[in-house]
Amino acid sequence: MAEVIRMPLLSDTMTEGVIAEWHKKVGDTVKADDVIAEVETDKATMEVMGYVEGTLLYIGVEKGKAAKVNEIIAIVGKPGEDYKSLLGGGNNNGQAAPEAKPAAQEASAPAPAASTADSAAVAEALKNATVIRMPLLSDTMTEGKIVAWNKKVGDTVKSDDVLAEVETDKATMEVIGYADGELLYVGVKEGDAAKVNGIIAIVGKKGTNVDVILAAEGTGGAKPAAQAAPAATPAASAAPAATPEVSENKDGGRVKASPLAKKLAEEKGIDINKVTGSGDGGRIVKKDVDSFVPSAAPAAAAKPGAAPAAKAAAFAPAGQEGHTDIQLSQMRKVIAKRLSESKFSAPHFYLKVDINMDKAIEARKAINEVSPVKISFNDMVIKASALALRQHPDVNSSWMGDFIRQNHHVHIGSAVAIEDGLIVPVIRFADQKSLSQIAADAKELYDKAKNKKLQPQDFSGNTFTISNLGMMGIDEFTAIINPPDSAILAVGGIKETVVSEKGQFKAVNIMKLTLSCDHRSVDGAVGARFLATLKSYLENPVTMLV
Asked: Is 392 a catalytic residue?
């Protein structure tokens, strides 16, 4: 069956995207992870993947032209397959019914009657309804988890209403339906994930037959998520609930809490009824859950009349053996996938160098006396790296399979550890910015990362990455290259070290740097020259200000 590819929602303010480039043409073979086009949004130019396999049968938007969010931009299917019925839904975000399956397939698995709905019935339903799909909210996203629904079936929906909050591999973002009507169908429960482009909701005129739309999609006319859950087995229904109900308090009233606060409370096993809210009207927000400290359980009272032990009592364990299985967040799944691919596909080699930071320490102290924002050593490393990359463009490159892309701009990614994993906000044109501008940008991006407020343009487009564990007491380490970069710099802490110089021993402040390089695009001598330039900047910081 042919599959439609729609204009994804690539930023929270995007309403349409301009096709900057098509990487495939009609007749080309398409794989699930192929980049089929580049789309220019209101904030950045990003790559679009189709997540389907087959032959590109149709391109609906020419290069340089714009398409609304969720509008059909391409169709992929079998060579020669008739796809024109899929265009009947126009921009109503639905698909026409596929051709009937062969009888042999019909016999192999019983299907509901709605699966044979004809194109006319689907087209009629799509006149009155809009299908809402899981949007592509980051360049590495393949699925999104519904954190919270802000609307329920039967609610009135306006085109600019936020329907749901979706957790991607990098952030929690809002999904807007861009449709008016009544919420007729919810296809994914809170806490469950949906693939990119999968149906998550249907909005339209009351009474519209959504079953024929779902049947055409291949879902078999599934009931809304609230009704689709299978009945619990007797054993399961008899078991006590593992977590407390968070939507009502002990008096049966509604708990005023943000969706993220409820989610965090559930993950931490906290009864949200016991949390005091600091938001408007006593609303519980994330910081209330983070700072919640449960009251200590009363100590067990000693038995009256018990004689003191004459010898050490026999050891008795306080509990039983056990473990906790932690479900993977979307971010952790992508970290595992991308870094595994990097480590086992890119031939890494490592170069290490010691930096005398005595002059950098003095320079930082003097700079901070006049700087409008506080300059950190990491800011100085970012600036020095950016200037060194400008002199050594071979390091500022990406391995593209059959060619090397040498970037003319310097965008430095600075890795940040957050609760769910690791994210890399990007400081753009770092070679052109002053230390105070870099410091201001970095602080803003780190704050947004920790609050899960980063937008796709904030964490995409890096040409080089820095990972700093020095502030956590790590002397030195090696880092895995962050695709699509060709190198990553691992920064250790500054440590006072005794060295010998001209027959005299003295204490100096040493910082250890390790450069991980992709040998396909960066040779050893190239990496060594880059580190030598970086070392000269950091050991004589005044040269960065010229």
From this structure: no
